[in-house]
Specification:
Elements (H helix, E strand, L loop, with lengths): L8 H12 L1 H7 L1 H12 L1 H5 L4 H23 L4 H6 L9 H29 L9 H57 L1
Length: about 190
Amino acid sequence: MKTPGPLTNLQLLLLTWRVIGGWRAIYSGKDFWAAAVVTALCTRLWYATPWWADVISVTPSLLGFTLSGFAIFLSFGSDEFKTAISSSDELKSPYVSTSAAFMAFVFFQVLALLYALCAKALAFDPGPCLSKTQIQSLTPAADAIGFLLFVYSLMLALRAALRIFRLSRWLNWYSVVQAERAKAASHKD
């Protein structure tokens, strides 16, 4: 098997996008629609208040927790187990798929945080450059998108946790099978 060459950051993001299934996977995913429902239910939080304050206060801690969890995942299990869940086709590898789930989680958290910072920076009286009517007509949609990004990044936390739980079950099964094989081999001797 040929060793994969180094990828640029953009190429890594595009690979992540392909592994997670792209726009189709996002729009058809239950976590996106759950985020849309939560965004609709929380309209009062983002419609007339500075919603970005919550995002800016929550997301950095969540991002740190995510990166720590990602590092723990990378050290998870034995080398034999990692080999068992790996595939030469990166798009079909459970190991790469779980890594991509974490990468998507981090990406959407960073995107939500950057969006919130921009929303905070742009929350000012436009003066004579734009009419208040123009700004007021664009603001609710922009606020809804920002809050949706934030809630979606929270939903991805659940997806990443479920992937880790699935892998822990596989590790448990793998360990039991290995122990049974070792026991059977010792009985033959």
